[in-house]
Automatic annotation (TrEMBL):
SUPFAM superfamilies in the cross-refs: Phosphoglycerate mutase-like (SSF53254)
Protein name from the UniProt record: Histidine phosphatase family protein
Pfam families in alphabetical order: His_Phos_1
Length: 198
């Protein structure tokens, strides 16, 4: 997405993929070539639906909207944060608890909704593969929970870039591996720095 001001989009409507973002979505869809995709779910936000479209076109699967895949709730939504923000009283008063976090949706709540949707999608695509298009923090929380890591973390250390693919592989009911790929890595320089939570 073109985001020169570094705005935290959060759940705000009408934020669409830039031309570069559209190219990234196409590369992500291409990454799935040769796979047996049986289901495609996406967050209802415009940028997620636009990311899902090339996968739907490639595999001929319908796109299902699911609110559980939506971006994390965040009181900084719509704001531009910078290194100067740490001196802003409006920002500081929300940063009293990094473990919950105090500025947004609780990490445990994000994990609960992501686990719920993963269970539904696994059941639908049993024995095959599914794609869920979500947002950075929900994906990162699902991954940390799958890897049995503590949920609180440093946002600047998330391994979840634009149009990346985080894979959970199951054998029957058991999670056997977590994978990560960046099909659009060559285009990151064109998109500018990643804004956590955007």
């Amino acid at each position: 997405m073109h985001n020169p001001d570094g705005i935290l989009y959060g759940r705000l409507p009408e934020f669409h993929l830039s031309e570069n973002g559209t190219d990234m979505a196409a590369l992500a869809a291409e990454w799935f070539t040769g796979r047996d995709i049986a289901a495609l779910y996406t967050s209802p936000l415009d940028r997620a639906k636009e990311t899902a479209r090339p996968v739907a076109d490639e595999f001929g699967v319908g796109v299902r909207l699911d609110e559980r895949l939506i971006e994390a709730g965040n009181t900084f939504q719509g704001m531009t944060l910078s290194s100067r923000s740490v001196r802003d009283v409006q920002v500081l008063r929300r940063l009293y608890n990094p473990f919950r976090p105090s500025w947004g949706e609780p990490y445990a709540g994000i994990v609960a909704r992501m686990v719920d949707v993963i269970k539904v999608v696994r059941k639908e695509a049993w024995g095959r593969e599914a794609v869920c298009v979500s947002h950075q923090l929900p994906i990162w929380m699902a991954r940390r929970a799958a890897e049995k890591k503590r949920l609180w973390h440093r946002p600047d250390r998330r391994q979840c870039n634009l149009a990346s693919v985080t894979s959970l592989t199951f054998e029957d009911q058991k999670l056997v591996s977590v994978g990560y790929a960046e099909p659009a890595a060559d285009l990151y320089r064109r998109s500018g720095p990643l804004v956590p939570g955007a």
